[in-house]
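Pilot study result, target chain (544 residues):
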Amino acid sequence: MKHILFIIFIVLFSTVQAQLLQDKKNFTRQDTLRGSITPEREWWDLNYYDLNIKIQPNKKYIAGYNIIRYKVLKSYNVIQIDLQEPLEITAFSQDNEQLDYNKIGSAYFVFLKKKQVPGEYNELYVQYAGKPKEAVRAPWDGGFSWKKDENGKHFIATSCQGIGASIWWPNKDHMYDEVDSMRIAVDVPKDLIAVANGRLRETYEYEFGGYKLYEWFVSNPINNYGVNVNIGDYVNFSEVYKGEKGPLDMDYWVLSYNLEKAKKHFKDAPKMMEAFEHWFGPYPFYEDSFKLVEVPYLGMEHQSSVTYGNQYKNGYLGNDLSRTGWGLKWDFIIVHEGGHEWFANNITNKDVADMWIHEGFTAYSENLFLDYYYGKEASADYVIGTRANIKNDRPLIGYYNVNKEGSSDMYYKGANLLHTLRQLIEDDNLWRQILRGLNSKFYHQTVTTKQIEDYISKKNNKDLSAFFNQYLRDVRIPTLEYHITNGKLKYRYIDIVEGFDMPIEVEIDGKTEWLFPNSEWKTKAIESSDFKVDRDYYIYSKKL
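Predicted structure:
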């Protein structure tokens, strides 16, 4: 039987390895241009976007321009700007001079005439237009969602995680460089309202043409995919939350006929804010406020403009992803997407290969929300329940420099990795300090997995490299093999990376004890055959 199980494991492991190799072979030059810090990107640093866009819902057509202000880091005369087809850039200019360019797929390489002097700030004017890609299954398939509400009015939203913000506006489409601030000006038919990131600064109704301008301003650094535009027959209500940094404006934009429903249901929003300020530190964008905006898809973590489409139900569209009952105590989208304000928008991955930083910590935030309101056992029930969603098909970390994220296990394997780590730290106050410290140390920054690993290891005074290698870079789950004979417990780990020796808590005859397994057999004298591994550790156990 052991031989059969070993053969099955080898076949499955070989299949995974073959798939990883095939993925690597399938990357194209376009993947590299999109996913790497090219020479045409690295010489300049984003400072400001001034995005202006007119949206024509009946034609599903947009037109506008983006003024990109940047700081010159070193002298160079070619700049890369990204915009995906079917949209087209119709003109580039700098200091009122038209510029030539070459186009390779979605990457435009613009030849600058002006000498680029290190330390100086310059602006590039980019004009564009067209019918943008329509999202087929937003938010997983990005683009524009052109929908109608129950009254037949236009209900429109953008989403672009993964596919990239260049699916609907021209920009420097790589995660490593966030713009410092941004203006978003949107012209829409005057019977509709446009909601974007940051604060509403001005509205203006044009005398002719039947359009109205909505001007929004973002004061904080923002990643490209966090930028969004939402258009509908919106009404607004708001409240002021007394937060760690003082009064926080919390605004809610919902379809007119859902106003009363939203006023009742959105009570989870200030509850989310209270729990996450406790665990993660102050909300990172007080200057830009917090918003929930109703959209015609499930939802997304757009910075200071979190989008909501969970049908005013608790759970995930009324379902409990943990199958424990605890997931129906709160609205999944409000809590999960709200948690992304700390992990994704405050702390942002430099490369999408490290997207587990966004999704693992935020999936983990779901059970911290439960911990705050219902206690530690409820939160453990929930996160352990989500293990049923884990596939262990690919590593959590994807491929670098080709815009390729890791496995979708980044959500709940990521959450269980962190839940396990909390047990190893053995000090919930220290664990909370680490989570808050991450958001302070890397405030408004883009980061790598190594930075996160090193920070947690340093604060815990332990080398956690083998732990992270096991759960982030390997598909196998550690298995504790054991047998009990003549008053002796023999045990060891299998399916582990080199150096993996994570201690675990076990229950022997009703008493909790620590074991320190590694790849070698160890022996411990015990008086009972009543043996159980603590469920909080994400490992398998197998009695021989």
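One observation from the pilot: Residues 1-18 have pLDDT under 50 and may be disordered. A full batch analysis is planned for the follow-on phase.
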